[in-house]
Design brief:
Length: 323
């Protein structure tokens, strides 16, 4: 059994509402190199990935292996994703989501194609005024709607996903405000793990975001192994996420910090280092992959030995997770 590996954390007092005030694009502007105008990256996994809008699932963007036949007998896992800023740009984290899809996952983001290749010209929207917090353009229920659709497609004759999805391989994930949306629906019994990026329930209490009331007691609804992937002390969600980690005592939980700030590595080709960690976590928790587990557990785990990362974990046995 691995004992709790919790180093001293200094909580930084920051205006917590800032985590959610910015649009996804504004938050992502902290990431470097790159921007969200470049070509799609196909991912580094076995299956070159694409993104698309599907008529039967309005208000979502689907990321999947381009050649589904290449899966052979491998079944797709499902990852439902909430966008940074709770925006409705389902392409705002496209490099990250394409990377996950390339490893054999069906990833479904809330929103539409509003940026990057394939996005049609649309009327510009008014920007938020100084000090103004716009209400979310997506809902937590968009994640469960995405999962409902995927599992229905798995049983629908004529669907390209017919028989290609394993209903036992399900995760909720999200960035910043989208991570809060994932937490709001974490109690869904179909979910087997949570991957939460640059997020955490507001330490200052609810009410900062119009239309959202997320309190610390939502953490008690977690019933699966969970990882927080944060951007270090400069991440405006750092104190919130670290406080969540400290409070969670009933499920296996880890927090991995990469000191790049709130923008993470979302704008880097193939989603950068954070996407690699997310894929390893999914492959461990959903597929029971032991090399992936080795990045997180054991005294000499991969992230423990990686100078870029700081890893803390609680409630894990030596090889926890998997089916």
């Amino acid at each position: 059994m691995i004992t709790a590996d919790i180093r001293r954390v200094v909580f930084v007092t920051l205006p917590a509402a800032l985590v959610f005030v910015s649009s996804a694009a504004a938050a992502a502007a902290q990431a470097a190199p790159g921007n969200n105008d470049g070509p799609d990256t196909p991912g580094t996994g076995r299956f070159s990935a694409i993104k698309e809008e599907v008529a039967s699932l309005p208000g979502h963007v689907v990321y999947r292996p381009k050649d589904l036949a290449a899966l052979g007998g491998m079944k797709l896992g499902v990852v439902a994703w909430g966008n940074g800023g709770c925006s409705d740009d389902g392409a705002s984290s496209r490099f990250h989501l394409l990377e996950i899809a390339s490893h054999g996952y069906l990833v479904i983001a809330s929103g539409r194609l509003l940026s990057g290749p394939g996005s049609p010209a649309r009327e510009p929207r008014p920007a938020a005024q100084a000090g103004q917090i716009l209400p979310p353009r997506t809902k937590a229920s968009d994640l469960t709607d995405a999962l409902d659709w995927a599992l229905a497609e798995n049983t629908r004759s004529g669907s390209p996903f017919f028989g290609r999805i394993d209903p036992a391989l399900v995760a909720f994930s999200g960035w910043s405000c989208g991570g809060l949306q994932a937490l709001q629906v974490a109690k869904d019994p179909r979910v087997k793990t949570m991957v939460l990026h640059n997020t955490g329930v507001l330490n200052d209490g609810p009410g900062a975001i119009p239309g959202m009331d997320v309190r610390k007691d939502v953490l008690t609804t977690l019933h699966t192994p969970t990882i927080y992937i944060l951007g270090g002390p400069k991440d405006i969600a750092y104190s919130n996420g670290m406080d969540d980690f400290a409070r969670i005592s009933h499920v296996p939980v880890a927090v991995a910090n990469l000191p790049v700030g709130h923008g993470g590595t979302f704008l880097e080709p193939n989603g950068g280092a954070a996407a690699s960690v997310a894929v390893s976590w999914l492959d461990w928790q959903l597929r029971g992959d032991r090399p992936s587990a080795g990045r997180f557990v054991g005294e000499h785990c991969g992230l423990c030995q990686d100078a870029q990362w700081s890893l803390q974990r609680k409630q894990f046995t030596a090889i926890a997770g998997g089916n």
